[in-house]
């Protein structure tokens, strides 16, 4: 589910702006670091730390977008791929310089530890919280996209940027906002997942494949797509590791290839 | 006389939107045929289906008597179908000569040769040069397309198609976007095209159509309204109402 | 922007093109302590050449080229360590065949897609190979890597020595052959056709080029070349580990090629030289700064100097344009 929160922003960004942002994991990592630092060193309470992760990453992404990303909007896929790889390198190096090579410890508040009793079985509280929170987030996102004016504008712009512009929608601002939202979500995801997926400097490298899989399989520009994809991956991953540990991640990759060949635009993506 | 290009009940729909309905079309060898119709009538869609860039929803396409409905574009080209694009589709950063040479090389089946340098294939270079010379472009051989005026680019577009030595040539608005002085040049070029080639031309410029075509098909909202000689089309009331009425033709 | 190739250029080898080889030989005699780095550079030049064929000329963006490199490396190693075959050429041939087969199969499958999907698939494929190498410990040595690779003296006479002299010359010879073949390819009608595909795929279809099959063809060739480069790596190190697979070597290679200049044949030479020498000098001393520096450099190159080092050289010192043989024949 964390995978979803992180990746949904990427799906929208890539679908909306047509920009191949491999560095999305960087935002997740940043969120994780902020979160862990806030919780641990600064003693900020849990909910506030989450908000902090979201907001700080979103703001940082606005700066990045205005300064750097926007120069490359029409530049072609290769340039975008290279640029974002460069960003990953820079961010990873900076992370390593500031935080060293170990993952910062995440001090979950007491009420998040332990187990919760649901229907007679005990589930780890934090996991339950994650699932509930993600569900709420999805609902909020869905509401935001399907019901609000902002959402309508985003959908219009994803569908046909030229038309949207001629109707008077300021796509530049929309891009920046959406990018900020997507990146903020990534940061939030990184923060939420910090306990389960350790945040260290190599984070964007290691998990790049997974983010891309979720987005590519789910379909660019859709919200449901990455959700389903993340779900599938989560299930497949757990099932595989449980039943056939020798295969490891092999099955996920094979499944990705199969799905992408069958439907190159992803499960829910718009036909290019 | 057998048709060199033919469609039977050709249909195309995108979901609920039907862009082509039961189009029956026949093009005889050496014929000069024009396809006209208001904007959005489905003319370019039709050409795309003929070329194989777009798959029809139903119906058949026959080239030289062979069913090519499912054949990929490359195969149809090999069997003698060539086209020009409404908006120039050239190799913009390459010199004029290369643009044509690539087509000639494909036709002569040397595009897969990997050992000798391209420039050493004199036959290709000479054929391309001669072809360009007949179009008045002999002085621009090494000029990159981006540096050419639009009218000349349009000529290169035609040159590439001619380099394929097609049996059938589909010209999608060859004079589009060209200033009227140059358009005259293009028309003269069209009139001098080899008589063996069957030509289907899509055009909005009625002067060009009536000077060039011997038969005209009128396409309206994806359906054939009328097919006949220029005189028949000019006289037809329905054509006037639907299409020619938009322009104040005498 | 077409550098090299086409119907209007003179394909004869111009004198500056001999410089890299002279430089390599000079390095061999003058810098004997750096021969192992030198061999590594030569291998990566070959690897970069293979990527430039599909990236610079055919326009296929891939992050999975390490799959062919790594497969070639492992096959060469396995043929030696597990099957006991020590002849260098047999090992290389096996690597080339395996990589070519993978290239043909995967190419046929994924080249129907484009852009992000294609990128994704290339990444997935190299990740799968990495996983397999990781898990199949009995075959590949898993995370510990495969040692015990033995290469018999080349042509029966040249033994691999401790100083890396044989290794260097061996790699140089193979690279020379690879370069000759690549250069021939680029200047041939096939090369012109590839450029056509990159420049305007729609037009290529309309002149009767079965684009898909052509791309599969060049992808396979590129895979073979990358596989040979991988085999060289195993043979010169007598070892192969997991670091030849996955995103990192692909990403690094991409950086090297961009640095040198994409689609320019010699970008594949300059890029690895610049990158690996810089890495050798700097990365040992300041590992954190290495990634930072490369990252910043990459961002700067993309924003300001898209053509890489060769692009910059072009701006400041334009070399004379190649003779137009077409003009001569038109008279």
CATH architecture group name of the domain at 5-88 and 164-246 in chain B: 3-Layer(aba) Sandwich
Biggest beta-sheet profile of chain C: none
Q: What percent of the residues of chain C sit in helical stretches (DSSP H or I)? A: 55-70%
What string, H for helix and E for strand, traces the elements of chain C in order? HHHHHHHHHHHHHHH
Q: Indicate the CATH topology of chain C.
A: ABC transporter involved in vitamin B12 uptake, BtuC
Secondary-structure element sequence of chain B?
EEEHEEHEHHHEHEHEEHH
Mean pLDDT score of chain B? 87
Task: Tell me which oligomeric state these chains represent.
Answer: heterotrimer
Q: Strand pairing plus helix content of chain B: what structural class?
A: alpha/beta
Query: What is the CA-atom radius of gyration of chain B, in angstroms?
Result: 19 Å
Give a structural overview.
The complex is a heterotrimer of chains A (272), B (250) and C (331). With 272 residues, chain A is mainly α. Chain A has helices spanning 2-17, 24-40, 46-67, 77-99, 125-147, 149-159, 161-166, 171-192, 203-218, 224-243, 250-262; strands spanning 115-118, 121-124. Chain A has one domain. Helix content of chain A is 69%, strand content 3%. Chain A has a two-stranded antiparallel sheet with strand order 1-2. The longest helix of chain A is centred in the first third of the chain and has 23 residues, at 77-99. Chain A starts with a helix and ends in a 10-residue tail after the last helix. Chain B is an alpha/beta fold. In chain B, strand 1 (5-14) and strand 2 form a beta hairpin. The relative contact order of chain B is 0.18. Chain C is built from 15 helices and no strands. The longest helix of chain C has 27 residues, at 211-237. The two termini of chain C are 26 Å apart. Classes of the chains: A mainly alpha (272), B alpha/beta (250), C mainly alpha (331). Chains in contact: A-C, B-C. Chains A and C meet through helix 4, helix 9 and helix 11 of A and helix 5, helix 11 and helix 13 of C.
